[in-house]
Write a structure and sequence with these properties.
- The protein has one domain.
- Helix 1 runs antiparallel to helix 2.
- 73% of the residues lie in helices and 0% in strands.
- With 165 residues, it is mainly alpha-helical.
- It is elongated and about 85 Å long.
């Protein structure tokens, strides 16, 4: 059976898609590593490390976006609008299927890490707001109480903020 004239072009597209998925996978790994380092710096309140890391965020996002743009261009050349449709059109090659599954797993890890960083950042901001509010005397800590000379809680003792102490 002679190969059709379309087969070499299809193989070329398949190879290009495989190489693109490998590069995208690598960029997502880089971004995951960055987000994990960022998480540690936020958790540890390491301002110096945050200053080192944050300038890299934009470049990593742009690298992932560039790979996604390449993917969109390749899908357009195939006349499809999704990776699933491209795989279907190419006959579901096993290598591309595995790459797609790996990519989907990493994208889920990326989503989870972004959510974790967001939650940690929000908690840190809230603790900072509360601390500043208490220090400035804007509101009292719910745990703040005055003690009598005998060491017992004295609910009648006037409370003073740390700002007035």
């Amino acid at each position: 059976m002679t190969p059709s004239p379309d087969r070499p072009a299809t193989e070329s597209v398949e190879q290009r898609l495989s190489q693109l998925l490998i590069r995208l996978d690598q960029r997502i790994d880089d971004y995951l590593d960055f987000l994990q380092q960022l998480h540690i710096a936020i958790r540890d309140s390491d301002a110096a490390r945050l200053e080192q890391l944050l300038p890299h965020d934009r470049a990593l996002q742009q690298a992932v976006d560039a790979r996604l743009a390449e993917r969109d261009q390749l899908l357009s050349e195939l006349g499809v609008d999704s990776l699933g449709a491209a795989l279907e059109k190419l006959g579901q090659p096993a290598t591309l299927q595995r790459q797609r599954e790996s990519l989907e797993d990493k994208l889920e890890q990326l989503r989870q890490q972004l959510m974790s960083n967001d939650l940690l950042l929000r908690k840190s901001q809230e603790r900072l707001r509360q601390s500043i509010g208490i220090l400035a005397g804007h509101f009292e800590s719910p745990r703040a109480s005055a003690y009598s000379r005998k060491g017992a809680l004295d609910p009648d003792s006037p409370r003073r903020s740390l700002a007035r102490a």
